[in-house]
Write a structure and sequence with these properties.
Strand content: under 5%
Number of strands: 0
Number of domains: 1
Shape: rod-shaped
Region (Disordered): 1-105
Order of helices and strands: H
Radius of gyration: 45 Å
């Protein structure tokens, strides 16, 4: 009877050790799964953030480029318009001056 009781206690201790090992394994598995999930989530978040940042940077760059192009185009147009206006004014002034000189003779 005593031996049986001793064997039963030994079996119970062995079961307890097995449960402890299982719990440890479960915790390790949980941690590993958590780390993998965290890494995947981090990577996905990074990609989304990078994508948003890239799009935002592209939009800002596009706006800056558009503004710069608009300013350059405006300057060129202004210069060209000024030159044409100056030529027309010069021609008109020359014609008027020639008429006055011719008419005055």
């Amino acid at each position: 009877m005593r031996e049986e009781s001793e064997r039963e206690r030994e079996r119970e201790r062995e079961r307890e050790r097995e449960r402890d090992r299982d719990r440890l394994t479960d915790r390790q598995t949980d941690r590993q799964t958590d780390r993998q999930t965290d890494r995947q989530t981090d990577r996905q978040t990074d990609r989304q953030t990078d994508g948003r940042t890239d799009r935002q940077t592209d939009r800002q760059t596009d706006r800056q480029t558009d503004r710069q192009t608009d300013r350059q185009t405006d300057r060129q147009t202004d210069r060209q318009t000024d030159r044409q206006t100056d030529r027309q004014t010069d021609r008109q002034t020359d014609r008027q001056t020639d008429r006055h000189v011719t008419c005055g003779c």
